[in-house]
Design goal:
single chain; about 20% strand; 7-stranded mixed beta sheet; 10 helices; globular; two-stranded antiparallel ribbon; about 300 residues; 11 strands; Beta Polymerase, domain 2
Length: about 300
C-alpha cells in the first residue's frame, strides 16, 4: 500500500503555517523591534532566521510558539565588547514582559498566560565584520568572564540561502516535509528541556547533507514516497556514526559540521551518553518505518510520530 496520502495528511496536521498564532507572534516581534528602535542609539536591521524563515517549523506540542530574530547592528565588532552590545538589547526589552532572560547565544522575551509560556522571541545580536560580508554573533552571558564571551563568526544567512538552493520544486518540498517529520519524532521521544535531544538545526543540517528526493512508481505514475525518503535519511544518519573510545569502551558518536561559519559540530552539545541514546532511538525509528512499509500497517508509524499520524 502507499502511505503517501497518510504522510501528506500528517504533514498538514503538524506543519507550522502562517497561522493566527504566528500572526500574533509577528505582532509581538514588531512591538519588540519598536521598543529597540526607541531605546537603542546605534542603528540596526532585523531579519528572521531559524525554522520560521526556512519553512521547517512544526506546531509545538507544548503550545509555545517561537520566532528567531537577528538584530544586525551597524557597528564594527572590533570596537565593542559582545556583552556590551547584548546589554543594549537587554536593557531595552527587560521590562517589556514579566520574563526576559539573558542567555549565552541570545536574549529571550517570553509571553505567558497563567504562568504558562505561550510565545517567545529569541533575539540574536550581531555586528558587522568589515573584513568580510559575514556577521559576528555576540556570545556571552551577563557579567561573563573574558574567556566566556566572544564575537563568533556566523553565516546562518548563507546556510539559509544554501538550503533554499539545495533542491527546487517538489524535491525541496519533500525535504522540508521530512525535516518536519524528524522534528515531530524528536518532540515525541526526547525531553523538551536540557540537551538530551538533537536540536532542530542539527536535524535540518542532517537533511541538507544526506537527504535525497525519493519517489516510487505506482499504477504507472511517479509519486513522492515520504516514508522511504525518511527511512533513507535515518539510515544515512545511522551509517555516519563513528565509534569513539570512552573510559575503556567504544560508544557511537555522530559528528556533522555546519556547512557555513562557524563550521562547528551541530551535535557537539550532546554528551556521549545522550549520543548513545540518540543512536538507539534512530535505530528504533528506522525499524518502525521499515515495519510500517513491510506490514502495510500504520501502528508502528503512530508509535514513531504520535497520534497526529492518521490511523487509515
Amino acid at each position: 500500500m502507499s502511505f503517501q496520502p497518510l504522510f501528506r495528511r500528517f504533514h498538514e496536521a503538524i506543519q507550522r503555517k502562517r497561522s493566527n498564532e504566528d500572526a500574533e507572534l509577528r505582532e509581538k516581534r514588531d512591538r519588540i523591534l519598536k521598543r529597540l528602535r526607541e531605546n537603542v542609539k546605534p542603528t540596526f536591521e532585523p531579519f528572521n532566521q531559524g525554522s520560521y524563515e526556512m519553512g521547517t517549523g512544526v506546531k509545538p506540542l507544548n503550545g509555545d510558539y517561537d520566532i528567531d530574530v537577528g538584530i544586525r547592528f551597524n557597528v564594527d565588532y572590533r570596537s565593542h565588547d559582545p556583552v556590551e552590545v547584548k546589554g543594549w538589547v537587554y536593557k531595552a526589552v527587560q521590562e517589556h514582559t514579566a520574563r526576559v532572560e539573558w542567555r549565552r547565544p541570545c536574549i529571550t522575551v517570553y509571553y505567558q498566560e497563567s504562568r504558562k509560556v505561550i510565545y517567545h522571541v529569541d533575539l540574536a545580536v550581531f555586528a558587522k565584520d568589515p573584513s568580510s560580508s559575514r556577521l559576528r554573533l555576540a556570545l556571552g552571558k551577563e557579567n561573563a568572564a573574558a574567556d566566556q564571551k566572544q564575537w563568533q563568526e556566523d553565516d546562518r544567512l548563507g546556510f539559509m540561502e544554501d538550503l533554499e538552493r539545495r533542491f527546487s520544486g517538489e524535491d525541496a518540498a519533500q525535504l522540508r516535509r521530512v525535516v518536519r517529520y524528524l522534528k515531530r519524532w524528536k518532540d515525541m521521544h526526547f525531553p523538551s528541556e536540557g540537551r538530551a535531544a538533537p536540536s532542530g538545526l542539527a536535524l535540518t543540517v542532517a537533511a541538507f547533507s544526506w537527504f535525497r528526493p525519493t519517489t516510487a512508481h505506482r499504477n504507472g505514475e511517479r509519486e513522492y514516497d515520504d516514508c522511504r525518503g525518511t527511512a533513507a535519511l535515518v539510515s544515512s544518519m545511522l551509517g555516519s556514526f563513528k565509534q569513539i573510545a570512552e573510559n575503556g569502551r567504544h560508544v557511537p558518536r555522530l559528528r556533522l559540521t555546519f556547512p557555513r561559519a562557524p563550521s562547528d559540530d551541530v551535535f557537539a552539545r550532546m554528551s556521549n551518553q545522550q549520543m548513545l541514546e540518540l543512536h538507539g532511538r534512530l535505530k528504533q525509528l528506522h525499524a518502525w518505518l521499515e515495519e510500517g512499509q513491510s506490514k502495510g500497517s500504520t501502528a508502528p508509524l503512530r508509535r514513531a510520530f504520535g497520534e497526529a499520524f492518521p490511523e487509515k
